[in-house]
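Objective 1.3, modelling of assemblies. Example input:
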Amino acid sequence: MNSDTPSPITIPALLARKSRGEKIVALTAYDYLMARFLDQAGVDMVLVGDSAAMVCAGYETTLPLTMEEALYHNRMARRGVQRALLVADMPFLSYQVSVEEAMRNAGRFFKEAQVGAVKIEGGAAVVSAVKQMVQAGMPVMGHLGLTPQSVHKLGGYTVQARERIAAEQLLDDALLLQDAGIFALVLEKIPRLVAKSVTERLEIPTIGIGAGPDCDGQILVTHDMLGMFEDFKPRFVRHYASVANVIRQAIQQYGADVRAGSFPGDDESY
Ligand code: KIV
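Predicted structure (tokens):
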């Protein structure tokens, strides 16, 4: 590392943010170029989400993403990130079958893509896997609330933990995961008051997506907030740009120039 290289964001640094009340900024990336944009813009955590299945591959859910595909996305993103913590989202069925398989697959992200952490969805059911991974030195981020890998069980992408019993269950799961050693917890699409009370009860940071403003950090799918992914727009997404329109307009202009014979011009020719 030379003196121009920014010092990387570590797990202890992220944990310290919570006690100082400093928000954690997280976004998703699936390749070198986007990961580099995020890193250059000062994002703290880059998640290589299994949302790649929907955003990059055009599937209707995150379930089809394979280990090999996830590893490829993580290796691409790795080369774009110097400062942010790179987190690999473990694909559906890469960690649920057995603790042994979960360990082997988690290990592949660290060995083959040099990630700084992995993320898995679920509560009590994944606690043994979390414990083993953390014991082996692999930092794990949890994910509760709307867990997209369980979309069929949940019956859709609806707001979770609206009822008191479900909210209490979520808090119990959060405390179990914290005891098992997770360093942060994603809370997706739950009422803001539930997210606030979980955030207050935990010592580790919560990262919200559709969970209101009281989480310790926020994450969005980058292609959503840039206005690139247009298949649907959840209420919790804010558009910071209309990149899809910019791309379409540029491509239409290119087409028009080619058809009119005005591209390439003299200075674009040899
Ligand atoms: O796959 C994903 O992008 C996620 C989110 C938390 C944004 O899990």
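The chain has two domains: 11-239, 242-270.
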